[in-house]
Write a structure and sequence with these properties.
two-stranded antiparallel ribbon; single chain; alpha+beta; 12 strands; 6-stranded antiparallel beta sheet; 3 helices; 168 residues; 24% helix
Length: 168
């Protein structure tokens, strides 16, 4: 039975925090732009075969602005290809990862955290982008995806680019 996966958007779960940054503004960047870029990234850079979104609801949703948060979950015929979450928690300063598996990484223009299980995270201004690549569901011409150092670098550059786009 095919599984229908749709991107999801919701309000800001951090709005009542003491450290709320009231200067931040919601993004008018379209959710569909981010989600389509993510599927394209997976297909081009991670060699996913046909990562996409299914269902007419996805296209309707894609026309909405991100505002404070959006999540994209494309799938392939083998299952979920990955997850991209873009959030503005409206908090001042660095928003540290909740997942203890993330480790800060140097060598990039923005704050970056990586985990050993194909999770990537960045913060640009008040925008946080987290990406998880489901390597076990991405079949390349040579077998199941095994991320190279070059693919890891491209993944970090991709999420930094997404964060920069949605904040502008």
């Amino acid at each position: 039975m095919p599984i229908l996966l749709l991107p999801v958007s919701c309000g800001n779960p951090f709005r009542d925090s003491i450290n709320t940054d009231l200067e931040t503004k919601p993004s008018q960047y379209k959710a569909g732009n981010v989600c389509r870029q993510f599927a394209s990234f997976l297909n081009g850079n991670m060699e996913a075969n046909g990562a996409s979104y299914r269902g007419t609801e996805a296209e309707t949703y894609f026309e909405n602005p991100i505002e404070w948060t959006t999540t994209c979950v494309p799938s392939t015929s083998d299952g979920i290809a990955g997850m991209l979450q873009v959030t503005n928690p409206r908090l001042k300063g660095t928003v540290n990862p909740v997942d203890s598996g993330f480790q800060p990484t140097k060598g990039f223009d923005e704050k970056v955290w990586l985990s050993s299980d194909h999770k990537f995270r960045t913060q640009v201004g008040s925008w946080v982008v987290e990406m998880n690549i489901s390597a076990e569901n991405i079949k390349t011409p040579t077998g199941t995806l095994v991320l190279t150092n070059e693919q890891t670098r491209k993944a970090v550059e991709f999420i930094i680019g997404v964060a920069r786009e949605v904040q502008s």
